[in-house]
């Protein structure tokens, strides 16, 4: 029987926090996989800790992320995605083991879909997407001549609060990548139904560039927004969203989306309804 310390040391982290964040209190839950029972770990974060975390993310965005060129960010995201092309990449192997056990999807389908999905984040694919959506990606870096005869620059939200998808493993990867490309920091809340990909992709970004990864924070549902879970009735949740997040993205159940939309905050809210794995 392992001790508590041994259980923690053997656990797989399904969260990502910026460097310098001090966390000493964790929760562990077990998942039965094809390779035996695995212990997954995530931190307990109360309201004040989340407030401090949001301030840190906004500061990192203003000091570091905003000064990076979109090409540099694109290269980092593409290099992180390229790590997943290796079948022996440790995070990919863990994802292929954990996602079927947590979601109930067939292992072969998860393996094939992960390989296919991560190809969307190759450099040429990201460039093609930016060109089709905004025309001039360089307008994310500087003012450029516009068709009206003046000059324009695109400015994304400084901090985005994201409730990650619980039924489609790849969607959080897309949300993270697109938010970073518009130079926005990310405060994300994962679901027990699929906590793996948001954390693992953020960790793969950290392997390529720790500065960019410091603009990302994500942890399990029920612990990030407030000590007792996310609730539109929780003052700490309202305060965190109202004062720090410029934009909110929710991929989840209709009741949760409606609760989030009722919050009176400075944030705009983007809603993504549940979809199937291969949608």
Structural features, described:
The protein has 279 residues and is an alpha/beta fold. Helix content is 44%, strand content 17%. 37% of the residues are buried. Residues 225-233 and 269-279 have low confidence and may be disordered.
Brief characterization of the structure:
The protein is α/β, with parallel strands linked by helices and 279 residues long. The protein has helices spanning 4-10, 47-63, 70-83, 90-103, 107-118, 123-134, 171-181, 196-208, 210-213, 235-244, 254-261; strands at residues 12-13, 26-33, 36-43, 144-145, 151-152, 159-163, 185-190, 216-220, 247-251, 268-272.
Mean pLDDT: 83
Sheet/helix structural class:
alpha/beta
Total number of β-strand segments? 10
> What strand line-up does the widest sheet have?
8-7-6-9-10
Overall radius of gyration: 19 Å
Question: Kindly, what is the distance between the CA atoms of the first and last residues, rounded to a whole number of angstroms?
Answer: 43 Å
Strand content: 15-25%
Helices and strands, in order, run as HEEEHHHHHEEEHEHHEHEHE
Using the alpha-carbon principal axes, give the shape: globular
Number of helices, counting only DSSP H or I runs of 4 residues or more: 11
Low-confidence stretches: 225-233, 269-279
Range of helix content: 40-55%
Largest sheet: 5 strands, parallel
């Amino acid at each position: 029987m392992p001790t508590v310390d041994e259980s923690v040391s053997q656990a797989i982290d399904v969260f990502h926090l910026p460097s310098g964040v001090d966390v000493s209190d964790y929760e562990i839950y077990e998942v039965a996989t094809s390779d035996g029972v695995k212990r997954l770990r995530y931190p307990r974060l109360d309201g004040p800790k989340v407030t401090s975390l949001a301030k840190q993310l906004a500061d990192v965005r203003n000091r570091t992320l905003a000064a990076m060129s979109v090409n540099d960010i694109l290269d980092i995201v593409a290099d992180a995605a390229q790590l997943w092309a290796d079948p022996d990449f440790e995070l990919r192997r863990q994802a292929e083991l954990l996602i079927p056990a947590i979601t109930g999807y067939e292992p072969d389908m998860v393996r094939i879909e992960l390989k296919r999905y991560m190809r969307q984040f190759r450099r040429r694919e990201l460039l093609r997407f930016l060109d089709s959506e905004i025309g001039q990606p360089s307008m994310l870096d500087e003012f450029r001549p516009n068709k009206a005869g003046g000059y324009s620059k695109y400015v994304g939200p400084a901090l985005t609060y994201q409730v990650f998808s619980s039924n489609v493993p790849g969607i959080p990867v897309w949300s993270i990548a697109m938010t970073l490309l518009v130079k926005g920091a990310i405060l994300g809340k994962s679901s027990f139904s699929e906590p793996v990909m948001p954390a693992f992709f953020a960790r793969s970004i950290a392997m390529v560039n720790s500065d960019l990864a410091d603009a990302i924070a994500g942890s399990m549902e029920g612990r990030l927004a407030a000590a007792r879970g996310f609730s539109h009735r929780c003052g700490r949740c309202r305060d965190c969203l109202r004062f720090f997040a410029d934009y909110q993205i929710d991929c989840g159940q209709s009741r949760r989306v409606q609760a989030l939309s009722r919050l009176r905050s400075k944030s705009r809210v983007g809603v993504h309804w549940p979809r199937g794995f291969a949608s």
